[in-house]
Amino acid sequence: MQTAIETESSGNGVLSGWTTRRWLRTGVATTLAVLAVLGSLGGWAMWRTSQITSELVDRRSPALIEAMRVEQALVNQETGIRGYGLSGRTDFLQPYARGVSDEKTALRLLRPLVTDERAAADLAEVERLADTWQRRFARPISEASPDEAVKLATRRAAEGKSSFDVLRRAMARQQGRLQSERTAATRTLKRAETLRNWMFAVIAVVIVLVAVLVSEGLRRGVTRPLTRLGSAAREVAQGRFDRSLSGTGPADLRQLASDTEAMRQRLVRELKFSEQARGLLDEQAEDLRRSNTELEQFAYVASHDLQEPLRKVSSFTQLLQRRYGGQLDDKADQYIAFAVDGANRMQTLINDLLAFSRVGRVHNEHQTVDLESVLGKVLDDLSVTIEETGAEITHDPLPTVVGDATQLGMLWQNLLSNAIKFRSPDRPPRVRVGAACDGGVWTFSVTDNGIGIAPEFHDKVFVLFQRLHTKDAYPGTGIGLAMCKKVVEFHGGTIGIDAGHTTGTRVVFTLPATGSASEAPRREVQP
Q1: What is the pTM of this model?
Q2: CATH number of the domain that residue 457 is part of
Q3: Which DSSP string corresponds to 254-315?
Q4: How high is the pLDDT of residue 485?
Q5: Inter-residue contact 160 to 52 (CB < 8 Å)
Q6: Per residue in 194-207, pLDDT tens?
Q7: Per the structure, how many domains does the chain have?
Q8: By the 8 A CB rule, do 85 and 149 touch?
């Protein structure tokens, strides 16, 4: 793992194109290779130490011990033979016999332990000299009678002593060589243990060093660039859109910084565009407020200044009709009737326009409204029309909603009066008012058995002044459904014609339920 990722990767060399993943892979591979080499050396050091220990414990030390046992056995034999030869007492033969047995046992154990040529030669020399001493001195005396043994020992005393001294020197050389080999093996073992300890100390140091290098490499190559980029991004998020976002470190982190910088520049451009759009919206809002003011002035003029001359025209035209009706020709009477009808329709149109302009502006008091009570008042107002047409109006239990009672009354009156007005000539009107709640929204329907509306006119009927019939067939100004649409949208609902209903017309509209009325979007309806 490199500790200078940031510096190297910021340059223009080959390493500048390395990503964080590549740095990590290279660092991990290098670390594993180093640890594998050190682990192999450590394993070899442990194996070497184990081999030397086994050599020392299983061969060198036992060989020296058995050689000393051979010497002890031969010394016991020499002591027994010498005592028996001097005194003729047979009890001295017991140490000799025990020494012979011990010698055989020790030699049997020593021979497999002596593997190198020099040690084998020493052992062969000891066995040869011991056999010569036993054959020339020990066995003849031990096999003789006490008297003969004393005589034989006396005659061969000098020869026996000389032969055993040579044997002693041979055993001393053998033990000295075995001792030196054991000492050398001990020194080798200590050196191997020292090497092993140093090897494991180096492995521990390398592991700590690798951990430090990895930590430093991650800090300089990953953590610090990310910290800088995050700090700069937070400054941009706090409103410093002129703060440039520059990246350091591996290629992918620099690419991330470049992408973030591109996003900041895009946001700056979008912000400038948004500021321009907001300025344009402010200008349009100002124009709209000015237009609303002019419309309010128009509504005032329509309700006061235009009404007065229109009433004069209408009253004098009616007076002219009453006074001179029948005195002029039929054409004059027809013209007078046209003038009276036009004045009356003009007055009705102005009143409807005033009512339309007041929706959302004059009547704007949202409170809890019992639609059952509002519908009852509307039915009372339409009682004469209902009685004349023989209409039958039924309804589901209606809920309580939040809204403006006057506007909701206008909504019901327009819908019910349309259902009665556009009735079929061959059957009396049958009107059904439905109500159902689903997901915090009330869905209302007004279904009639009248003449219906063609599908291509389902949207057109809600446009101001749109009429589908002549005024002679069905009187009106074409404002009723447009006013209904305006009232419903002001209360945060929608309205439309049910295309699936074919017999007559079904108008469906929605209103927020009482529990969710405060959360329903209330549209700003312009006059």
Answers
A1: 0.44
A2: 3.30.565.10
A3: HHHHHHHHHHHHHHHHHHHHHHHHHHHHHHHHHHHHHHHHHHHHHHHIIIIITHHHHHHHHH
A4: 84
A5: no
A6: 888 998 888 888 88
A7: 2
A8: yes
Query: Taking residues 359-377, what's their average pLDDT?
Result: 74
The sheet with strand 430-438 has its strands ordered as 392-395, 430-438, 441-448, 505-512, 495-497
Q: Distance (Å, rounded) from C-alpha 95 to C-alpha 68? A: 17
Q: Is the dihedral of CA 389, 390, 395, 401 positive or negative?
A: positive
Assigned domain for 253 exists: no
Here the tokens at position 149 are 């043994």
Task: Determine the 3-state secondary structure of 430 from DSSP.
Answer: strand
Residue-number span of the structural domain to which 476 is assigned: 364-519
Q: Which tokens sit at 48? A: 């070497």
How far is 36 from 157, CA to CA, in rounded Å?
70
User: What is the CA angle 423-424-425, rounded to 5?
Assistant: 115
At residue 423, what is the residue type?
R
Q: How confident is the model at residue 243 (pLDDT cuts 50, 70, 90)?
A: confident
CB 138 within 8 A of CB 82: no
% of residues, the chain, pLDDT over 70: 77
